[in-house]
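Protein Entry — a single chain follows
Next Lines — sequence and tokenised fold
***
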Amino acid sequence: MRDDGIITFGGSGLDRAAELRGDPAAIAALAADPAARAMVMWQGKPLTGNPDPAGDGTGPAALAWIGLGHPALEDARSAPILLGRDDDGTPLFAAELDAWEPPDLDAAALGAFADPSEQWHPELTGTGSFVELRRVMTTLSARDAELAATARALFGWHRSHGFCARCGARSEVAQGGWQRLCPACGAHHFPRTDPVVIMLVTRGNRALLGRSPGWPEGMYSCLAGFVEPGETIEAAVRREVHEEVGVRVGRVDYLASQPWPFPASLMIGCHGIAESDEIVRDPAEIEHALWIEREDLAAAFAGDHPTVSPARPGAIARALLRNWLADRRY
């Protein structure tokens, strides 16, 4: 398990080979390289070579890779997406097996807060299983985590943006998977990333936490919300906190960010200084909110608090809170 203060999906210095995306011949040459590898996904779940059998995020995990000629890729409706080049120059791709459906699929598990199910493809026996990314994200290497987050976000975007937003015609994959092109009107569409502010709000020795309906019992996290058009990050922090719990925030400082491919957000971590105490929650957004003393938060991280559990491992909220407890800057 990596330190809670480290931002999962925080980047690994991957060479994304962006200069080659507009060159079909160059992409074909990379794909033809005998060393080229593909990570494989199904329903946003990466093929993981050694998933944690306990499902509690404490065991090792690593992406499983296959060659671009592997028979399992016959279950992919689209060509693999170019992710970039590894440090040794190895071309890295991603493929989604969207034409395959596992037998005896538990559809309810796929929509669970933390999907515990695994799926095994008949052509990938002995290679790995498809595992929910949130289950294993904290045990992946920084490189694997960046690749998995990138692939999941891109495949999710392709699934939901198959038609041109300008004219309604079916669009086509272009630029090695990093663009969609409309053959009818010529419009170019690019992967979507939604900015979300997530804020560590403090007042003296206390931090403001909330929980949403449907979360695991006792789990609390930092407040968060989408940045609206025409709004600064600082204004979004102040608006969201006041809308959700009625607390007014003054000074706002940027701390860190995290790509969050569930489905397509960039979490912008901020620190806000509260100027009021009274909590007046919006029941449609927040099930419960509270101020927690630093000592009580430390007990929650240690598993010794009777009612509060901190945000899940891997979430930026956990890193924000952990670093505040440790008086540590990013």
